[in-house]
Amino acid sequence: MMYVRAVGLLSALIFLLCSSFALYADEGRGYIERRLHHPVPGGVAVVQLPSIDTVNRPKVTYQNHPVMVVRDSNQKWIAIVGIDLKTEPGEQAVVTEQGAAIPFSVRTKRYKEQHIRLKNQDHVSPTKEQLARYQREFDEQMAAYQQVRDAGPSNVLFEPPVKGRFTSPFGLRRFFNGEERNPHSGLDIAAPSGTAVVAPADGVVTVVGDYFFNGKTVFIDHGQGFITMYCHLSRIDVALGDSVKRGDKIAAVGTTGRSTGPHLHWNISLNNTRVDPAIFIGAFEYETQ
What pTM did the predictor assign? Predict the structure, then answer.
């Protein structure tokens, strides 16, 4: 009996020590950093900035792109950095306006494969004319991703823009009818056609289009290079240049473009880099296979 009690006391002591270490590790980290810091290829690094200016937002860049900077719950300025899916694990750095490099480490993450059968062969091997159309549409979207408004964002922690089941996650290596294509750049959420899609944060509508691959599409610019995209829509309820508020209805789920059924393809871009939307809704997983 004494042995059992001793083991119990030892277990309790270990638990308390581990809890203390966890609290110590989180000391100085704000709420946003604890929620969003997942520095993997296709992920987000949250970097505390050594700024004593409590009024003026510091300016930093990563790989020559402006980076979003906000104030965390601990009142410290933080840079929220999008990491490209092709980035190798290792040391990276953001650069301040004064030229100082602030390092962060990129960890390893593995992504699954997905094999899809498409009935429309044009969406696997487009014609020359279709490729020309795709290139025009691609250029339009890339230009939108590069926009950086100084204002915003209203919030960086989201609710999903549509209620539904998560299907294809970000980063999948995709094969269409056996042919490999670019990894999946967003999160797919399956829902019945016509289900409302809402804005997860305030912003300005910068793209409204009907594209070859994406179908009916909307972009919302939330400020500081923080941009969200919504694809395969059945209907669009906003116009180019509209200002939207968090929770406003912007569109409806559909299956337009290269799609095998009703769903929303949702992606998020930071500093002109597509990152995993699951991070922003508390659904991120490090190991996927």
Answer: 0.83
Top pLDDT among 13 and 274 is at 274
Q: Cα 103 from chain centroid?
A: 21
Structure tokens of 202?
A: 């305030």
Helix ranges, 72-205 (H): 128-145
Does residue 68 register a pLDDT over 90? Answer: yes
List Cβ neighbours of 56 (8 Å cut-off, separation of 6 or more). Answer: none
The H or E element containing residue 109 is none
At 69-84, the pLDDT tens digits run: 999 999 999 999 999 9
Domains and CATH numbers, the chain: 29-106 (2.60.40.1590), 113-281 (2.70.70.10)
What whole-number distance in Å separates Cα of residue 89 and Cα of residue 97?
A: 25
- Measure the CA–CA gap between 221 and 209, rounded to whole angstroms: 15
Strand partners, 46: 80
Q: How far apart are CA 106 and CA 280, in angstroms?
A: 18
Question: Residue 287 has what DSSP assignment?
Answer: B
* Residue 36 DSSP SS3: helix
Q: Mind listing the pLDDT tens digit for each residue in 86-101?
A: 999 999 999 999 999 9
